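G.,

No rush on this.
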Amino acid sequence: MKYYKVEPTYKKSVIEWTVFKRLDENGKPIFLRKELGWRWGEWLFSIPETEEEAMEYLASVGYEGEDAFLNWAMDYGFTIADATTDEIEVPEESMLELIEQQLLPSEDEDFVDLTEDYDHAEMLSTWDGCWEYWSVDSFFAKLTDEEKEAWIEEAEAAYEEDYEEGVEELGWEFIDTSFEIHCNPSITECDEHGEVLENEV
């Protein structure tokens, strides 16, 4: 495997979202969200380096057999089927190049949804929380500002006391925690522990 450390290029660009849900008396969903801004964060990306590792990756995401790579490439938009013959055109890039392109963000991107797009990424660290903002909203239920403020105050106090479990005791269901980088990422080759290689320093 090849390993890369991905981090922001600007401080205060990492956002962690924690989402809870409850239903109102009519069964309409209401969402409680906590936005936490971090000064910095680092993630470890593992990328197949050999064809054997690439095939193991394809099998892990449901692509096996003789046409595993071509089927994967077509599903992810790297190739198309010829309209007249219906034959799949082989991509110009190698399997390893395309898998790396799929599994690793580009330094040209100005936004990286780590949790949604790169669920294989391993968080190494986040540090120095800079801000915290809670919100309540719903696409279906009508909520007053007073209701929102009361729920937020109650949730903040419960979270400070007992984190997610405290909020769940108030009747909210924990849904997920996710991370985003809101700037271009810096991508550096490293070892499996996230230590930057000497030739990359």
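When you get to it, here's the other one too:
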Amino acid sequence: MSTEVSYTQQGHIGYIRFASDDGINLLSVPIMASLEARLDEIEQSPNLRVLIITGEGRTFIAGADIDEMARASGDEGRAFSQRGQRFMNRLAHFKHAVTIAAINGSALGGGFELALACDLRVMAENALIGFPEVSLGLIPGWGGTQRAFALIGPARVRRMLLTGERINAKTAFEIGLANECVPLDQLMIRAEALAKGILANGPSAVRLAKHVLCAHEAAWLERGFAGEAECFGKAFINEESREGLRAFLEKRTPSWAASLG
């Protein structure tokens, strides 16, 4: 099922919502292009100051579109990573508004990377986040390794990347990946309350505060992004990732021995 992207605005607050017929929202290259077009449109709104991004159904964004990845040739891996990084950087450096990810359900892989690219994250208690890419013979490739490292440091990021474990909202809040952990029925209420707290402040001051933070991050993140894209490309061209992606689509356990030849 394809994922739809909608946008609405109420006063100074805008809302981007992901939705699909089966409730499992996926992030693909066409969806990234659609989101970029939305951001272009939003920049034309003089009144917008806060942008809340959320999902409908069981997921925020369950992850990247595995079928799309499996159909890509192995040598497209680095370009695929760089394409995703460009979009995530566009979102992270979005000058027009403060961005809040209201994480209603699972945000895994690319979905987690999108949430990390937002300024703030509010998680529903039922939500899960994580980097399951190693279970596919891959690594995160859209900036997630670097942004997670910036938030929680090397020890915790190593555990997430090497085990592929999923983290619940309570733990995410405790270690600094989420700003708030709330019951699902309070998710949008709390996200909007956070938005209103931002709106109570000077608009120029808020934008300048975001600018200086983004400028500081960009100074050291760029090199890390280049290394991430290179390593993602190496993983993507490997038979191991081909086996991992096939196994996921065929709903079976990967045979890593087979991928090693």
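The mean pLDDT is 93. The longest strand covers residues 4-10.

Enjoy the weekend,
O.
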